[in-house]
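## Example record

The block below lists the input lines for one assembly entry, exactly as stored, with component labels intact.
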Amino acid sequence: MAAEQLAWGVMEEGWRKGPWTAEEDRLLIEYVKLHGEGRWNSVARLAGLKRNGKSCRLRWVNYLRPDLKRGQITPHEEKVILELHARWGNRWSTIARSLPGRTDNEIKNYWRTHFKKKAKVSSDNSEKSKARLLRRQQFQQQQLLLQQQQQQQQTQVFDMRRLMSLLEENENRVPTLPQMKQDASAAATTIFPNTIDDHHQVFLYSVFNNSAALPEATNHDQDINWDGLWNMDEFSGNIYYSNSANRATLRTSAATPYY
DNA sequence: AATCCTACCAACCGCCCTAAA
DNA sequence: ATTTAGGGCGGTTGGTAGGAT
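Predicted structure tokens for the full assembly:
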């Protein structure tokens, strides 16, 4: 192990590792000029570099390529990253294809440093979410009792404001899609025992369902509710995006009932 | 001034896929 | 049908810089 100790910038099995020197960069650039991209394992032999093919490819793709965009990620790029990550998850290369000049590595690093922490905070909040869910269930039971008392005198009033408050109370939870449908239906029948019909149920369900359509939802610069957004690891496949844009949509819908 | 902490990011690793031999 | 080389991808590591204590 003596001469091949695993440290930065030392030789391992004949290959140099660690940070690239300016001279190595120059040799690699020269190689690509002459031979084009590809055949990376030939670089060592043809360019006189003591780097393996993988290392050369990575250096070129992530750092030396002339079409790379330097500098800070712009707010617009950040928005694109957020939207595409919501859609694709950690498929960094797929996301990178939508951001010319940015590499998957760059985007991945950006994501981890800027947003991963929020995801952790969100995960820490999951216990609180469970407590909120319990309170919500209790609330629904109360509502059911209340509704039974009022049922006799209930008129055919479509009170969307009550629905709004119920939805807002639950804004941070992350239900599954079947739960969402069930909840929408339950909320509707709780509040509108006599009036709810298929038409209204379809509407209520679409309200919940629209909340999961992030690309449209985050095409706004409003404050995003990160708690709901970053919980994807824990709730893979059951993502619920809650943000002010959705609530704004809901308010609009409430003001203009959907018939 | 020294130490600690955090953000940033270049580079590596292991796994996987694909095409050619 | 199998093997192998080349390359892509996502996860992780470790060095560095700068700010906070």
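Residues 2-64 of chain A form a domain with the Arc Repressor Mutant, subunit A fold (CATH 1.10.10.60). The CA atoms of residues 176 and 238 of chain A lie 5 Å apart.
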